[in-house]
Amino acid sequence: MAEFLDSEAEESEEEEELDVNERKKLKKLKAAVSDSSEEEEDDEERLREELKDLIDDNPIEEDDGSGDDSDTGSGGDTEGGGSGKKRKKHEDDDLDDRLEDDDYDLIEENLGVKVERRKRFKRLRRIHDNESDGEEQHVDEGLAREQIAEQLFDENDESVEHRSERSPREADAFDEEDSESDADDFIVDDNGRPIAEKKKKRRPIFTDASLQEGQDIFGVDFDYDDFSKYEEDEYEDDTEGDEYDEELGAGDDNRVKKKKALKKKVAKKTIFDIYEPSELKRGHFTDMDNEIRKTDIPERMQLRQVPVTPVPEGSHELDLEADWIYKYAFCKQTVSEQEKAENREKLRKPPTAVNKIKQTLEFIRNQQLEVPFIAFYRKEYVKPELNIDDLWKVYYFDERWCQLNERKRKLKVLFEKMRQFQLDTLCADPDAPIPDDVRLMLDSDFERLDDVQSMEELKDVHMYFLLNYSHELPRMQAEQRRKVIQERREARARRQAAAAENGDDAEGAAIVIPEPEDDDDPELIDDQLKQAPNSSPYAVFRKAGICGFAKHFGLTPEQFAENLRDNYQRNEVTQESLGPTELAKQYLSPRFMTTDEVLHAAKYVVARQLAQEPLLRKTMREVYFDRARINIRPTKNGMVLIDENSPVYSMKYVAKKPVGDLFGDQFIKLMMAEEEKLLEITFLEEFEGNASANGPPGDYVEESKALYHLDQFSKHVLEWNTLRAECVKLALQKWVIPDLIKELRSTLHEEAQQFVLRSCSAKLYKWLKVAPYKPELPTDYGYEEWSTLRGIRVLALAYDPDQSVAAFCAVTTVEGDISDYLRLPNILKRKNSHNAEEKAQKLADLRKLSDFIKMKKPHIVVIGAESRDAQNIQADIKEILQELESSEQFPPIEVEIIDNELAKIYANSKKGESDFKEYPALLKQAVSLARKMQDPLVEYSQLCDADDEILCLRYHSLQERVPREQLLEQLSLQFINRTSEVGLDINLMVQNSRTVNLLQYTCGLGPRKGQALLKLLKQSNQRLENRTQLVTVCHLGPKVFINCSGFIKIDTSSLGDSTEAYVEVLDGSRVHPETYEWARKMAIDAMEYDDEETNPAGALEEILESPERLKDLDLDAFAVELERQGFGSKSITLYDIRNELSCLYKDYRSPYTKPSSEELFDMLTKETPDSFYVGKCVTAMVTGFTYRRPQGEQLDNANPLRIDSSDSWQCPFCLKADFPELSEVWNHFDANTCPGQASGVRVRLENGLPGFIHIKNLSDKQVRNPEERVRVSQMIHVRIIKIDIDRFSVDCSSKTADLKDVNNEWRPRRDNYYDFVTEELDNRKVTDAKARAQKRNTYARRAIAHPSFFNKSYAEVVAMLADADQGEVALRPSSKSKDHLTATWKVADDIFQHIDVREEGKENDYSLGRSLWIGTEEYEDLDEIIARFITPMALAARELIQYKYYKPNTAAANVNERDFMDQMLRDEKTKDPKKIHYFFTASRSMPGKFLLSYLPKTKVRHEYVTVMPEGYRFRGQIFDSVNSLLRWFKEHWLDPTASPAVASSASNSTPLHSMRPPPNISSSSGPSLGSQAPYSITGSVGGGTPRSGISSSGGGGGGSSSAYSVTQSIVGYSSSSGAAGAAAASSHYGSSSTPSFGAIINTPYTPSGQTPFMTPYTPHASQTPRYGHNVPSPSSQSSSSQRHHYGSSSGTSGTPRYYDMGGGGGSSNPYNMGGGNMPPHHQQRAKENLDWQLANDAWARRRPPPQQQQHHHSHQQQQIGMGMSMGMGMGHGGGGYGSTPSNDYNTGGGHNRGMGMNQGHGTGSSMSSKASVRSTPRTNTSPHSMNLGDATPLYDEN
Fold first, then answer.
1. Which end of the chain is more exposed for a tag (fewer CB within 10 A), N or C?
2. Which helix (H) or strand (E) holds 471?
């Protein structure tokens, strides 16, 4: 019953409200309800319209609370009840009724959905059955929703406007006509009773069948009329509703009224209910968007943060604003330096600009003309002072001015209210004295507010107001509220009295005229909020009356501020007669018990008043901003992380730098470093005072104190002076300066952001300023198909540097559509490739491309600048075009490389995805590249969509640091300027959607207005035939039309005869419709028509054909006449019209120019001048070495040098110094084996650019052979000293002096205020801290119970083992981490090796891991490590130590152990010159290795033997005993070693066993290298084509190739023998603890105090490397016996792999006399002298005859193709090959073991050992002893 009563109440009250017509309608409705037998309508269409509103698929909770149903508040429906809950929103007025079964059938048939058949319901629910649910959801609904949305959104403004213009009368008629219907009975209450309410009948919405179908499917009744209704009454209704909401507590009557009021305003279901707000906002379909569309003001003016507002007539605001803008926009200096001095002068405007600014403001504010319109059509009023950028500046500063003015106005209202309140308060009791804490509002306060010129000053004034009056505000607001309430009550009483007189019911009147309650005024809502009590110290002191004390200080805050501003005592201090202490006694109170407390409070109050004084803050702001200085210090992290590549490196330490010295975006970089906790920026609170004649300026705060000082010397005065000085200091240092520092930071940040924005804008301007490409065809070239009148065809190619990804070509038509494309999978391959298949694929692609070009005939070919491959492709295409020029008579076609950044972003953008769904990314790139050449402006605009993808382009490295909206705004300005300059053909836009995005940038339009205009044209399906139709057809308002019409061009030539309308020629020009008459007049005058025959259209057409006749007109006189007639100044406009008639819509953009060398370099390397510059320190990989080979004349004049100490000769070019005879040197020249003088090192930088280090820039010390310092594939640090942008190469230096930049010539220049002293102190502290840290324990104590484990440090363990026996071991915690241990064992006296043990499976940090690892070997426990790893090594070491030729290493700490051994051997040699002496000693620099030193002739040679658990490792082989090691050594001592002993004590070399090159580096010649070029041994890393090589053709002849640049490379291994050598390539001195052979050293080398050379690898100075020797170990590091071997060898001369001790591949045993029975150890020692003598004799004896040499040669040639190691040598004299055996003790038959090539296919022990491959020496005289002379290898060098 409750609900029924409510509904009845609603009806009756509603009736009282209704007018006569509505009452009639209501009666009809009631009649319809009572008469249930009335026949149903047969019109299905109408019934569907009526019923569709009843379907609501949305849950109730989702509906907004804008309406109530009939049960609201009655408690019947919990979901709908209660004002606090969300209420069900009905689409229309709710009508309930019972439905018959027929009705249900009819609904289901029409709606296509099942309806739940219930007796009582308030809405129909849609039932989803299982079968239909999936289909509807996944198929129909998605597609249909998309379709309906598209068409709904296509609703145009025309229909909207027509609908909104329909008269209310028509609407009423419609309602009346359709209101009688059975549908009225459908809506019932919960008791099933019909509720007859006023029901608005719905008009049919859609005439379109598909839209109607969509509506039927979804139950969505969207009507564009909702938009207009929203504007017309929604807002008023909402506010009324809000007022009623406040009254809901008053009782049921009011609540019902609320409901009734809302019932009238319930909206139908609209797109606002269907789509997410974000979707609507994105598509511009919100209420605000619709309001913008309809308002006749340019869209951007409406959207500005502070919309453009007109100035009232008679106001002087424009004069004030023009002066303000001139001062702040064009004259005011920035705090930091934003422009160079010369630019600043250019930007400064003359005073005449003020009038131009005023005129611009008049156009913008009062005439609503946009900036482009003013710039193009009002030039007379702004030129020459203001260009278009200046006009935009005026536009944005106008926004600031309006914002400032609005805030000043509001503050003024507050001031006036306060003054009125004070007046009322004083008038209430005129005789009462004014309290001490009350400050009266004075006229000066209002004047000060009027004088405010900036937001900062306004804030100061407001804060000062709050300081003085905040305690009075609550009382003022309460008083004001009381007055308003009283006025309202009086007004209500008057209204009620008037209503009573009219005889109407007062209550009804109250319903019709809603009476807001007292609490309801929005203006007062804020006031009634309870304010928090002010408990600041100032408020407390003020309550205690201290403000009265403050008045005795002698100056008011305003007076002190004036003194400060003028910098002299303008206002004298008024001295108080009492002393401060006596006066303070008068203010004692329970709050302040002592005079000290009173004085403290008084100081605080005075200081606070001074600090908040606006004039003081303004003065201080100007002074501080001008004189502020900053200090910059790095944090702990910053000291490490800020290196010379950091953007803040030059300001890492800065002391007292003036903020005015900051330039451009520097402050953002500093802030970024500060955010990353790398820097600390401190603004100094002390700053200079004013300059004085007496000397340098003092401190400002001290000077300020003097202005509050009285020059008297009585005790009272001195006490007061002290107090005043403390107040000034407190005010400035505690409040003013900290506030100003915050302001200054913010200002500096904003200025830096503006700099970045300007840079981004300038970059985009540069891109958009380029005109479409116009090919320069020969004048005599007249073929129709090559005409460019309608545009150009472009072929674009996009590729990926990855050769496995196919490249794509695309050809665009002149309209920009894609006519065809081509896939080119092999375009990046090389035409001259050695691989025949690769070559064929490349040529096939080029043929395809040639045919494609021939068929498509592009005017230009463009290639995306992805990498340097683009230049190769460019060369290939140029060749194709040259062929086509000659064979097909093609005109010259350019091939351009253009930047592909836009193309890549477009290819990945949503726009690119929607345009070309099926295309791969590279093809989309090609499309974008082609279109960019056709029109850059249009192509860049493709990214200007709702997703703002235009921001993806890189404009500036700091663009992410500026607000996104500001950046977007600045970029939009460039599009607006360019679009205005170029104009838009709107008909073309309707046909081709590519240019659509530019419409939003047309003057006067925007995204919303442009969208509406375009859709209207599309829907009306007609062309725009003249500009007048913008008004008649497109319904543009006059203001928008004036703004946009001149920029919308209509191609009148294409209209031709297709239209009956008058074709206005000028519609296709830039001439604005407002000046058409003058253009016609100019045409008539120029054609000299008589008045009778005047035909303006004809005259215009004629003048367009002969525009030169316009030059005869006197336009200045015409302009004077126009001005006289009141048209204003039009002189420039007339000249513009003349220019335009000479050439309609001439494109003023810059023509396309080829990229300069520098631009091409940046495009292809993807570097910028900021990221790649001379002086930058980078890492680079060594790729090879270069040599300068001697030529004819040099060879003739060569002068070999004799070396007296060794009786040998030295080559003057390659400096090889081991020729026994002079003739050997000449043979060396004749055989073409002299590579020449080393000239430098080739490197590759990280960005792929090749670099070159000249030999003089390799090291501070003189380097003759670069291979001694670096090796191929090593990473090194270099500094760029020259960039050759034409050749895409750089010159580098790796000298330590350059890397450390000792002379400060390479690193970025330090700031002028750089603080070197503090930096030095900080560095010293860091060094000291490191030293102290090293002294402290660096290990964590461990809980491990083992007799050999000690919780001791490195030093303690070494001290403990010092007295222990050799081989003793101690395990200790590692300083590496908690999951490592270190095993230290004693190798020999004072020599200890430390082995890293890794733990895994630890229970906690302190326990021992379950498994222990040394390198890749796993151990179960510490005992196993000692037994299996350390004890065997200790035994092996002991065996060596006990050997008779072992010498203890007693070298002093500062003496190199090799020098020590040198001296010892030379001493022995002196005693016995005939013997070859050798000694072992334990290495101190590399513990665990033993140095084997021997003296064959005059030069000591050193090699290392490593002790291992398996025995001894020497030259890559493992030996199980000292005897086997020495036997092998004595047989093979002449073999080329894998790498020499190069331990340098100075550099403490890193173990080099891991310095093998990367395994994937392959031979440049493939497996058949030998068969193609047996002697070609060069190549570049990674398989590039060798630059040059030493290649000798022929067997015995001396054919030569004279290459100047010999690049050493690492060539891969192609067969099994090479693989064997690969393993042997490891150096001899890897760490014996964790051998990790084969790892690649690629850690960049950084010079430090311990490393005097460029690289940690520092070979022996006297070594001369060979080149071209293809060994996997660092070839430049091989021993001297291998030094001049110029043949190619795939392994380390075929030495066997590790552990390869048996079988045919094993070493032949020189003592193989008794089936492998070894002589005893003592026999071995006894035979040593004999061994050496036999080796000597064998060398001299075994020289085969020439025939045998030839035989060997032919046999070798057969084997080369098998990828064997090539050890061939060229004969010097007569050619041919010899072979040198090592020792002739091998009794087995078979191949000659000394042959220059290892045949590799024999078996048995007689087979030549892989380790014995040596080339044959060919000397003029054979030596008679083993004194080999300066370590000369005994084999031929080619």
1. N
2. none
